[in-house]
Amino acid sequence: MAAFAELDWRRFDVWAILAAEGVMTVQTEHRDACLAWLRSQNYGITSLDFANGVGPVVSYMGEIFLWEEQFGYKLTSDGGNLNALRDGFDFDLQPGQRHVLEIRNVDVAAKEDLPWLSGLLGIAHEYSRWQLALGARFFTLLALDESSPLIGLTYQTLTVPGLSWTKFR
User: Which domain of life is it from (predicted)?
Assistant: First the structure.
């Protein structure tokens, strides 16, 4: 099942997933209208609010991703290991489902731990691609002011892979 029946480039979600590769920004003053549109298009929305820093959000992600049930330990504020987070980052989407991860007060997270935030955005970017391949729509939404220093931030770099050939199925 394809995630999109047609590629209508006038749609916000098409731009978010394909052009922005799973990490999209919207001006802060348009956030509410954007979320209302997403809900009208049957998107589930999970919000992470960094107003109180990275630690509480890491703990909350442990709850969202059922960390203790998956791995046998709690993901705590001091457990922001990105490799572990990549392993457990899953919204359990089915083909045809739509979901947005909204990140609020992202500037606070950037000031506290920019490398960790960059890693989180990289994980979300990867997850968006995986879900697209599986027939679901997922992207991350950042509400930013026009003057935010995060606009243009490099959060993941891609390289040409090494040479490889195996007999693929």
Answer: Bacteria
